[in-house]
Design goal:
Elements lengths: L6 E5 L3 H13 L1 H4 L2 E5 L5 H15 L3 E4 L5 H12 L4 E4 L3 H9 L5 H13 L12
Parallel strand pairs: 1-2, 1-3, 3-4
């Protein structure tokens, strides 16, 4: 499996860098190298789209993980997905989702659905004395 970036993590502020750093701590630097962090800090809407387009082209990424479903990174990524065949946008990125992605043996539509489910399953309310659900 190649260690080249297979996905872009696009988020507000330093969140993308933090998520990729956390993936590195848990799964190792080689696994984290499959993710390219992207921040929208200091960028306007058109600049986000231009920078994201360059990141996709230079990395060959087939998926963009974003933090907010209606955030500026998602809006830009969804617009780019109209022009980039096969580009997927997965919203609501979290650590379980990204760990599942870097550990997956393949990339493709079935993987996007699997990692989205892992991300949802990683959200648990653990009440005092309980195991969560």
């Amino acid at each position: 499996m190649s260690d080249a970036p297979r996905a872009i993590v696009a988020a507000h502020g330093d969140l993308a860098e933090g998520l990729v750093s956390a993936v590195s701590r848990v799964a190792g630097a080689a696994a984290a190298a499959r993710l390219l962090p992207f921040s929208n800090a200091t960028l306007g809407g058109a600049e986000i789209a231009d920078a994201l387009r360059q990141a996709i082209a230079s990395s060959g990424a087939q998926v963009v993980f974003t933090d907010l479903p209606a955030g500026s990174c998602t809006i830009a990524a969804r617009r780019l997905a109209r022009d980039v065949p096969g580009l997927a946008v997965v919203c609501g990125a979290n650590l379980p989702m990204l760990l599942s992605f870097v550990m997956a043996s393949s990339a493709g539509p079935e993987t996007w659905q699997l990692v989205a489910e892992k991300g949802k399953a990683g959200i648990v309310v653990a009440e005092e004395g309980g195991r969560g659900n």
